[in-house]
């Protein structure tokens, strides 16, 4: 429908009694509907054209000609660089506009009295002005959220794997681990984690997982989805995927949502690990043990909206949780009968500082340097035990020197788990 703010241009007009409005920046009231006569001189001849169904809107700033209404009446609209034309079906010129830049866009909605979308370009350039006044809206654009993807999968167990590497942890484990690799099956939700000191070991860990899938469930991995990290795009990794005929799906750069399953899995593992460490005041150096425990527990847990656990879907047998213990709970170790006397306790709590000889099981060299591993179970009791142990160390060293030669001549020195066991071993040699 055409619109005009010039009442004098109407040759006839009927007042609007229905209260209809035109919605632009704010509502405009339609005062009436009528006919406007347009006079135009074409090639020296003056023509008069009547435009019917023109809406009179006093608050508009320019005349708006609806191209949709023109086309409905059998005319065609043509736009050129310096002019616009409206022609009849036979090609005869009906109307011509010389300055098309006065109105750049005029669109009438399907409703008879609905919306008017118009943009006028003039010398004032008010659109740019208001754009600057509103603080440059283009600089405030944000990315639209990604559509959620259903949890159903078209792949069988082990056929499509989602993977990602957790960014480096600022605290290394006693073995030097700073990264962990997550591999999650799309069909069953079964996940597995591998720990690494460097990202370059991702290819080795993935080979282990690929062999694990083949041997445990007899399935060949068909698709692997990951981000564009160099640990996945390097030549060795790509060569291995080609050898195994595995399709590699890569997410777009900086679009983490396309690898959302693996990203969410890392978040779930880290949050669970953090909770377990802080609940029992466990040393942060044992974060890898907490992540491993969290992965194990999640595989035994039914996901929302499901009826079976990932473990059961993967191994096709029901899991048991009778053996689960509280992470960080006090643990006791059994003392070998060769290490205790008649009235000595047969078990003792594991110390927070466990010293053992890594080479004792395979070598008789008693001079092998021991390795200390921190295992935190109770911070308060650890502090209470530190003082007496420190006082006993000089005496223990003297006893070790006195009986070291005798122990080497008679039999190999047994592996010891802590300082207390070492003292019992020395006493046993002395008794013999």
UniProtKB/TrEMBL annotation:
Q: Which residues form the Integrase catalytic domain?
A: 153-318
Keyword tags: Hydrolase, Protease
Domain of life where this protein originates: Eukaryota
GO MF term set: nucleic acid binding; peptidase activity
Is Hydrolase included in the keywords of this UniProt record? Answer: yes
**Sorted alphabetically, which InterPro entries does this protein's record hold?**
Integrase_cat-core (IPR001584), PolX-like_BBD (IPR054722), Retrotran_Ty1/copia-like (IPR039537), RNaseH-like_sf (IPR012337), RNaseH_sf (IPR036397)
| Residues covered by region (Disordered) | 378-432
Where are the bilayer-spanning segments? none
The protein's name is Integrase catalytic domain-containing protein
Q: What is the lineage of its organism?
A: Eukaryota, Metazoa, Ecdysozoa, Arthropoda, Hexapoda
């Amino acid at each position: 429908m055409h619109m005009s703010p010039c009442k004098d241009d109407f040759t006839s007009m009927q007042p609007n009694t229905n209260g209809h409005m035109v919605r632009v920046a704010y509502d405009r009231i339609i005062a009436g509907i009528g006919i406007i006569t347009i006079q135009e001189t074409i090639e020296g001849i003056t023509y008069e054209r009547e435009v019917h169904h023109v809406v009179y809107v006093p608050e508009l700033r320019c005349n708006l000609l609806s191209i949709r209404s023109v086309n409905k009446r059998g005319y065609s609209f043509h736009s050129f660089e310096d002019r616009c034309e409206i022609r009849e079906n036979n090609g005869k010129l009906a109307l011509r506009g010389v300055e098309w830049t006065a109105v750049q866009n005029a669109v009438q909605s399907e409703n008879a009295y609905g919306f008017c979308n118009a943009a006028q370009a003039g010398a004032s350039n008010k659109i740019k002005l208001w754009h600057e006044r509103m603080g440059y809206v283009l600089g405030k654009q944000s990315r639209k959220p990604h559509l959620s993807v259903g949890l159903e999968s078209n792949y069988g167990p082990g056929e499509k794997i989602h993977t990602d590497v957790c960014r480096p942890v600022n605290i290394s484990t006693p073995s030097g681990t700073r990264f962990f690799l997550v591999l999650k099956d799309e069909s069953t939700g079964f996940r597995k984690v591998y720990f690494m000191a460097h990202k370059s070991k991702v290819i080795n860990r993935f080979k282990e997982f690929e062999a694990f899938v083949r041997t445990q469930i007899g399935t060949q991995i068909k698709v692997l989805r990951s981000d564009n990290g160099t640990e996945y795009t390097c030549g060795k990794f790509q060569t291995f995927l080609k050898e195994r005929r595995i399709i590699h799906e890569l997410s777009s750069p900086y679009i983490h949502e396309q690898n959302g399953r693996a990203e969410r899995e890392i978040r779930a593992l880290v949050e669970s690990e953090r909770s377990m460490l802080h609940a029992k005041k466990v040393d942060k150096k044992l974060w890898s043990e907490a992540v491993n425990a969290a992965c194990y527990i999640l595989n035994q847990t039914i996901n929302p909206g499901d009826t079976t656990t990932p473990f059961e879907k993967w191994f096709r047998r029901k899991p048991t949780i009778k053996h689960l213990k509280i992470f960080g709970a006090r643990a006791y170790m059994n003392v070998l009968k060769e290490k205790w006397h008649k009235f000595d306790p047969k078990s003792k709590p594991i110390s927070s500082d466990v010293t053992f000889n890594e080479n004792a099981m395979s070598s008789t060299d008693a001079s092998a340097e021991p390795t200390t591993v921190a295992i935190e179970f109770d911070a308060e009791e650890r502090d209470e035990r530190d003082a007496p142990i420190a006082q006993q160390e000089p005496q223990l060293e003297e006893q070790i020197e006195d009986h070291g030669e005798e122990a080497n001549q008679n039999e190999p020195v047994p592996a010891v788990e802590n300082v207390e066991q070492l003292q019992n071993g020395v006493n046993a040699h002395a008794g013999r």
